[in-house]
Predict the structure.
Amino acid sequence: MAPVLGCIADDFTGATDLANMLVRGGLRTIQLLGVPKSDSHIPDVDAIVIALKSRTIEPEIAISQSLQSLEWLQKFGTQQFFFKYCSTFDSTDEGNIGPVTEALMKALDVDFTIACPAFPETGRTIFKGHLFVGDALLSDTHMNSHPLTPMTESNLVTVLNKQTTLNVGLVQYDKIEAGLEPLRNSFDALKKTGVSIAITDSITDNHLYTLGEAIADFKLITGGSGIAIGLPNNYQNANLVRLTKEASKLEPVTGLSLVLAGSCSDATLSQVEKFSKNNPSFKLDPVELDLRPAIIEEAIEWANLRMGQGPVLIYASAASNEVKSIQEKIGSERAGSLIENAMGSIAKALVDSGVRRLVVAGGETAGAVVGALGISSLQIGEQIDPGVPGTITVEDPKIALALKSGNFGEVDFFQKALDTMP
Ligand code: ADP
């Protein structure tokens, strides 16, 4: 059967988050990394999530990658498409939420869609068009000084209007609370006034379920992963899929275990500290690495000698004062790329030595590792901690992978991941 839902996400961990949500809803889901090649092999799945890295690139390139992805997805006869962005609506006046939405609408020949980043479970709610993070307006949170996508305006109608030539409107929560028919009528009323994209209020999961039902026939949906909670039932009601608790069941993978941590966020620092109490650990220092690249070989040899006895950890994670001093010595970009390249080379060598269970901490670090291993698709399994599922590679050799962005996961995440992954 053809996949019922084709998704295009504007970043990697956001894509995983959405895939995790779809699997929890009972859809067998695969995640692809980057614009798929025309001959990419796809197992039998209900949903496909393509992870782009298009959040902050030039709008023209984001549009082109999104359209190529759409075209690839359309080959399966998929009927519904989802453009996924961050639940804090990360974007600038130039884009890329507006330009990509507009381009996808044109390509799919649709005249109306919604934009709904709400995700009440994680504190992202929309009230009268204003996005809240917890109890604060978006513009009053740390997002107002984000280095790439500073969000200084909380009214999403205003934000999106700046990014698109289409008319943006609003469906307020009372219309959603009123139920399915009044909600559909509000969509129609907005369309009549020339609105093409509706920001939709959502304060509770119930709002998302009602919205999910109301957009069952929409060819294109845009939003955060929250809006996906209402979708799986639509496909089952239309007899397109049979939702299954088994969606997260993957073939078990056996082999040596490795944890790589390149994130310096607080959660990862605690996870490194906890895991290294019970397992051998090796620390990489960017300044030393700069002077003596042979440390990479030494780390590989060190791991090869120990992995037969149990999982090992190789990490570069350091507290903020240490990172600051490193960055003052060799610059933040150089420090970052030295570690990312080292992690990629180490992962490749140790997979060649038989590692088949791999946990990686850090968004950029995960990107570097997955790139070095040449992985282009992942099947999504059971959730380890919120937002982070266990996965396995579709291509051979089969590797069980847990890729988490720095701040995710409980303190025992590394062990839990190794225990939970297929
Ligand atoms: P997160 O998900 O926490 O943002 P990332 O992997 O995306 O983690 O980013 C962390 C960045 O910090 C990477 O570029 C990594 O190479 C770099 N890095 C890791 N350890 C150090 C360190 N000790 N000093 C400086 N930079 C580091």
